[in-house]
Design a protein that fits this description.
It is a single chain. The chain is α+β, with helices and mostly antiparallel strands and about 350 residues long. It folds into three domains: about 100 residues, PAS domain (Beta-Lactamase), CATH 3.30.450; about 80 residues; about 130 residues, Histidine kinase-like ATPase, C-terminal domain (Heat Shock Protein 90, 2-Layer Sandwich). The longest helix has about 55 residues. The two termini are about 65 Å apart. It catalyses: ATP + protein L-histidine = ADP + protein N-phospho-L-histidine.
């Protein structure tokens, strides 16, 4: 009998030691407090988070400190609730600061003749979780903003095509009809006016296409990039496009428009600001996709790039973020510019 009791005692001691080791190894903080909010047990994680130690009195969380309670009511929200056992608040630390935590509560059954139960609180620092949520919210807002921008571009493009372009065409027809009835001395002036109207019509069509590249949605990203290079190539600037055979085809959803806009902005900057004579667009895709736009323009000081106020650069960074990728810009005065965006393969 004594042997059995000894084995049972050693087993209980071993179990208690294992349980204590488990509590001490947990990343979550564990605090056990009595009815007077005095700590009767605390694990190292809780001490690291709050600074509180065994025997300390735990102040109320920020929510409970400020909330209104009636006479005789329990100020501690978790202690006074029977259904709610988890909520988030800011717990005071021993040095007077606050740490945002998620708190779970349970009670230990009283032993012997005790009239009240000790309360067990499991706390988790939610600072990183909040930051992650804020980043996700910011990314979602960014994606929604870009979608709204594209919808507005599409609307304006259609207005230009269906409204302004058709009006200019009607003006041209009217001037042609007027020329037949006008005296010969006015023919040349009318021809000059018709030529201006046609140039204006061409500019409107080009602007409409820039705002909403229908080819992108009809034939895909590769065809749209090649068309863009053809349209933006000039007698003073040659643009080359190369794609590896693994570059994804088909419907890329919202990914295609982000890549297209980044390339469009980079090429525009190279021509307008860099005065480039040669631009290379290289697109490869394996596990990660990479789009590189390299030019031989005048370049700039890349160390000052964060100080540049341009909307175009901000837009490129936002679109790279929407792709869950990164945007890299390398440049030096007199040595051209290299723009590269890397993002996960949408089909891989």
């Amino acid at each position: 009998m004594a042997r059995v009791v000894g084995v049972a005692t050693r087993t209980m001691a071993y179990s208690a030691e294992r349980l204590r080791h488990l509590f001490n190894a947990l990343n979550d903080g564990i605090i056990v407090m009595d009815k007077d909010r005095i700590i009767v047990f605390i694990n190292p994680s809780a001490t690291r988070m709050t600074g509180w130690e065994l025997g300390d009195w735990i102040p109320y969380c920020r929510y409970c400190e400020a909330r209104e309670v009636g006479p005789g009511k329990e100020r501690c929200f978790l202690a006074g609730q029977t259904e709610v056992s988890y909520f988030e608040s800011e717990l005071p630390t021993k040095d007077g600061a606050y740490v945002p935590v998620g708190m779970s509560r349970t009670f230990l059954e009283p032993s012997g003749g005790e009239a009240s139960r000790d309360m067990v609180i499991v706390i988790r620092d939610v600072t990183r979780e909040r930051q992650a949520k804020e980043l996700e919210m910011r990314a979602r807002l960014n994606r929604m903003t870009l979608e709204v921008q594209e919808q507005e571009r599409k609307r304006i493009s259609q207005e230009l095509h269906d409204g302004v372009s058709q009006s200019l065409y009607a003006v041209d027809l009217g001037m042609e009809h007027l020329k037949r009835q006008a005296p010969p001395r006015l023919h040349r002036a009318l021809d000059d006016l018709r030529a201006q109207v046609k140039r204006c019509s061409q500019e409107v069509r080009a602007l409409s296409h820039t705002l909403y590249p229908s080819l992108l949605y009809d034939l895909g990203l590769s065809a749209a990039i090649r068309m863009l290079s053809d349209e933006m190539s000039t007698s003073g600037c040659r643009i080359e496009v190369s794609l590896n055979k693994e570059w994804p085809g088909g419907d890329l959803g919202g990914i295609a428009i982000h890549v297209y806009r980044i390339v469009q902005e980079a090429v525009h900057n190279a021509i307008s600001h860099g005065r480039a004579r040669h631009i290379q667009i290289h697109m490869t895709c394996a596990e990660m996709c990479e789009v590189e736009i390299r030019d031989d323009g005048c370049g700039f000081d890349a160390d000052q790039i964060k100080l540049l106020p341009g909307y175009g650069l901000k837009n490129m960074r936002e679109r790279a973020s929407a792709l869950h990728g990164v945007l890299e810009i390398e440049s030096q005065p007199g040595q051209g510019t290299r723009v590269r965006v890397i993002f996960p393969n949408p089909l891989g």
